[in-house]
Structures are given as structure tokens and as C-alpha cells.
Write a structure and sequence with these properties.
The protein has a six-stranded antiparallel sheet, sandwiched between helices. It has five helices and six strands, in the order βαβββαβαβαα. The protein has one domain. 34% of the residues lie in helices and 23% in strands. By secondary structure, the chain is of the alpha+beta class. It starts with a strand and ends with a helix. The protein is globular and about 40 Å long.
Amino acid sequence: MSPSLVPTCVWRASPQVIVALDDRFGEPVDAYVNGSQVWMRDDGPSGIPLEWRLHPVAGFHRPAGVDTYELFSLVALALGNGDAPPAPLEQLWDGLEAFAAYGDETEPSLLRSAVADALGLAPDACGLADHTAIGDQWERSRGAVSIVEALLTQLAG
């Protein structure tokens, strides 16, 4: 079976990325026990819907005493105020990915421009990624591999 390549943009996790997400997008529309945070927005090229997914680090563990649905807001508030978050950022998320939510077709260069405008930060990498291969690798490892590193490796190739 040939890979299904998806135009994708990726940012490495940083305080600037987390604060920009909070300032520009607000609360995620969904949060998962595996650490993923998701926003669905119509700010892609020509208004196509994009999925913005903050990916957890490999082997993610939610900080004790923090609810799945409050993790992002607590971390974003702390980072925005210059305070210590409930756990160091490098123990929570590896990076942010943006891609067409429903398989809409677009060019990576158009996606790069649209996402940079929406977030106010240029992505670290942009190109075509094989989500199926990365998802299969993550599932086989039971979450022990970094999705962001896998994306960055593909986008650099």
C-alpha cells in the first residue's frame, strides 16, 4: 500500500508556542488522557478547516493532581505569567502540528503561510507527512516514541 501524504506544519514545543496557542486560540476543543490537546479552526488556506494538535512527549504522564482538561490552561497561564508550570514543558509536549482536518487538499507552502498568520509564529518544518506510518509506529510502541520527532524526520527527508 502506498503512503497517504498529508501537508503538515510542525513547531517544536516552547513557551512561545504554548502562550501563542492560548492567546490566539484559547482553550483546546478537546484534551486526551495521552496528553494531546486539539483545536479545530477554519484558518487554513481558503478557509479550510485545520486540526491543530499539541502532541505529548513519548511516555507522557499527566502531573499528579492536574485534570486532563485543565492541563493546557494551567501550563499556558503559568508560562504566560513567567511562573513554573505544574510540570516542566519538556515533560509534557514535544510540539504542535497543523494539518487539513478532513483531508482537504492544499499545498504545503500555502499551509505554511496560513498557519504562520493564524498562530503568529512560523513553523519549524512544513511538508508532506505519512500520518498512517507515524500512527502505526506510535501504536506499536504504546506511546513510547515521539510523534513530533517522527514528523520532523519525515519533513526533513
